[in-house]
Amino acid sequence: MLANQNQGPVLRHLSLQFPTDSYTYNELIQFMVGDGLMVLPVVEQGTLAFVAYIPAGAWYHFYSGVFYNLPNIQNVGQYIVFDVPDDYGTLPLLARGGTVIPFHPTPAMTVTATKASGIGLKVFFDFNQSAFGHVQIATDAPLDSQNVTVVNYVADGTLANGAFVSLSATAPKINPALTARVPIELFFPTCVDLAVNATVKITIDGVVDESGEWISNFTCKKFTYLLPLGKDGSTAFILLWSVPTITPIETPTSSDHTGAIVGGVVGGAAGAALISVAVYFLKFRHGGSSEYNEIPMRQEV
């Protein structure tokens, strides 16, 4: 549901997002932000835990990456007990599996300073081993079709092998204003048994990053990679990764898909997704300035 195209709300009741789940109809506290984020407000002072209804599907804690697998049984989810964060500045927030969420890595006291940190990305894979999303980037001029560009994100794979494609018809290749490397955080629903001394091999735009110093938070279900200086969520790039593994501890519901670069073209399932994204741009491409200073968020599944 694109709020700017179909007049739907950005902040929406759960029943708008999950109309076939009758348990969402009477929910008065929780709400969705776009298609990809669920906010779980804490409304009782002094409480240490609270109960929230989570519709069926794959969900992650936005900050910790803890995964919640809620099987779809007759379109009904589950009630789950959550601890209240010790840090009262951390909002209880869930991300829906299958979404790519853009964010500013370094919030600051002013909008200008916040934007200067660039656009980082959190990639939350579903059990189909994929994630999709996009962001609208505008100048400081009035928000209309002449001042907005859209960057689409397509991810495909597992921790062992995968690809992430950031594609824009109008965004620049390099953002020279960035002074620090921007993170892309990847979260997977299936924990894999890592080989001894396993490391992540990264290829960015066809060039192998052999340093390894830009990879952190590496576990059997996630890792963080700092993009090369000048690249962020507003720029076009192709990221590939591979990790030596032994065998999955859990079995995904679908077969593995691996993205690959073949003759300079993205192949595999990621390649098919890239073609569909290119068709999207042919249909919806916006003209306008090449300065990107605002990001009204849009996430789609």
Automatic annotation (TrEMBL):
Query: What's a Pfam family this protein contains?
Result: Glyco_hydro_31_3rd
Q: Where is the Glycosyl hydrolase family 31 C-terminal domain?
A: 9-101
Which ranges does the record mark as transmembrane?
A: 260-282
Q: Does the keyword Transmembrane belong to this entry?
A: yes
**Entry-linked PANTHER family:** ALPHA-GLUCOSIDASE (PTHR22762), P-TYPE DOMAIN-CONTAINING PROTEIN (PTHR22762:SF133)
Tell me which Gene3D superfamilies the record gives.
Golgi alpha-mannosidase II (2.60.40.1180)
Signal peptide positions are none
Q: What is this protein called?
A: Lysosomal alpha-glucosidase-like, putative
Origin species, per record, is Bodo saltans (Flagellated protozoan)
Protein keywords: Membrane, Transmembrane, Transmembrane helix
Query: Mind listing the GO molecular function terms for this protein?
Result: hydrolase activity, hydrolyzing O-glycosyl compounds
